Amino acid sequence: MTRQPAVSRLTFDDVMVPTYSPAPLIPVKAEGSRVWDSEGVDYIDLAGGIAVTALGHGHPEVLAALVSQAKQLWHISNLYTNEPVLRLARRLTDATFASKVFFANSGAEANEAALKLARRAAFDRFPANPEKVGIISFAQSFHGRTLFTVSVGGQPKYASGFGPLPGDIEHLPYNDVEAAHSAIGAKTCAVIVEPVQGEGGIRPANREFLKTLRALCDKHDATLIFDEVQIGMGRSGSLYAYMEYGVTPDVLTTAKSLGNGFPIAAMLTTDELAPHFSPGTHGSTYGGNPLGAAVADKVVELVNVPTVLNGVRERSAHVLASLRGINGRHGIFKELRGMGLLLGAELSDDFAGRAPDFVAAALSAGVMILNAGQNVLRLTPSLIIPFEDIDEGLRRFESAIPSVTDSQAAA
């Protein structure tokens, strides 16, 4: 057997395109909500691979689904269908508003498909209105890294330097009903919104805001797209967050937790819109491959049960109560917000801009957390994380706080 070459964190700098700046450690093993690095140091995972490992690491039933399918059929191309993807599509349509599903590999691809579908539907349905191509998005939104999705996303830094960018895209203030009324009109083909903004600072939408978007899309024959890549698949406390709000979109995108770490995404839509993606208009080589579909089918089966969804609400309340206690002792947070197990802690003005420092300090103390911008700490753990792991993770986080606050005081 050929010996594997030795690698270290320094190898990244030698051989990888510097798109990322990873932490100094290399995780090599994980189970449940605990991770071990190459030095044997253990970490409590309150990041969940950025809201991905909804059932934790190495879930035995998910692993069994992967292994079973791997022994049968890995890939067959979209020239054929396959049994796992049909089972998954049926499970998703049975559980949601949708009647049809398109599978892709990532949230960006699912959003790309949703935006293309909206423009294609407007092209087909309104030939007398060629200007009906406008897309409404919202400030601080994030929808992916393709050229189209960074243009639609409401954070200019991600699109800077990649022009010329796709046009006819307008960004409105999030949760601003008046702005929506002013901007959405006859030229609008789509409105895309995150029910809870993730990268934009963990900001939940107001119910009135989403209801207004629904009504305006109905009035102006526009497609309403909910980007649930991060909040979807149980993280809100419902299978999808639209169920929490009682507002149904025309298209919903889902990824991240859908595969629990196996790359898979889906665009869910209706019988009315689906035919506008006729054969040849869109596609994906790997989208809906048997391996990913078998894993995701098991994930949806395990997540979409009352014990898990109710458990999300219980864990959410527990985390928030613990964070309030930490804040009472250290006074570092301005606001706690979010939904379910997509939670954000906005730093107080005294620590503005230092979210990455808290993330690094937490890692040194043995807990993985995230930031959402420079001012917000983000927690997206497994939906079934044991309460003792929550407590231990937050204890480790609290122990790391003085390393940041003391340096601030010294400065």
UniProtKB/TrEMBL annotation:
Enzyme class, UniProt record, top EC level: transferase
Entry keyword Coiled coil: no
Reactions the enzyme catalyzes: N(2)-acetyl-L-ornithine + 2-oxoglutarate = N-acetyl-L-glutamate 5-semialdehyde + L-glutamate
Alphabetically ordered keywords of this record: Amino-acid biosynthesis, Aminotransferase, Arginine biosynthesis, Cytoplasm, Pyridoxal phosphate, Transferase
Cofactor note: Binds 1 pyridoxal phosphate per subunit.
Chain sites annotated for binding pyridoxal 5'-phosphate: G107, A108, F142, D227, E228, V229, Q230, T285
Residues that, per the record, bind N(2)-acetyl-L-ornithine: R145, S284
Known pathway: Amino-acid biosynthesis; L-arginine biosynthesis; N(2)-acetyl-L-ornithine from L-glutamate: step 4/4
MF (Gene Ontology): N2-acetyl-L-ornithine:2-oxoglutarate 5-aminotransferase activity
Entry keyword Amino-acid biosynthesis: yes
CDD domains cross-referenced by the UniProt entry: OAT_like (cd00610)
Pfam families assigned to the protein according to its UniProt record, in alphabetical order: Aminotran_3
Cofactor: pyridoxal 5'-phosphate
Subcellular location: Cytoplasm
Broad class of where this protein is predominantly found: cytoplasm
EC number: 2.6.1.11
HAMAP family listed in its UniProt record: ArgD_aminotrans_3
Assembly and binders: Homodimer.
Record's miscellaneous remark: May also have succinyldiaminopimelate aminotransferase activity, thus carrying out the corresponding step in lysine biosynthesis.
NCBIfam families: arg_catab_astC, argD, PRK01278.1, PRK05093.1
Protein family membership: Belongs to the class-III pyridoxal-phosphate-dependent aminotransferase family. ArgD subfamily.
Protein's UniProt name: Acetylornithine aminotransferase
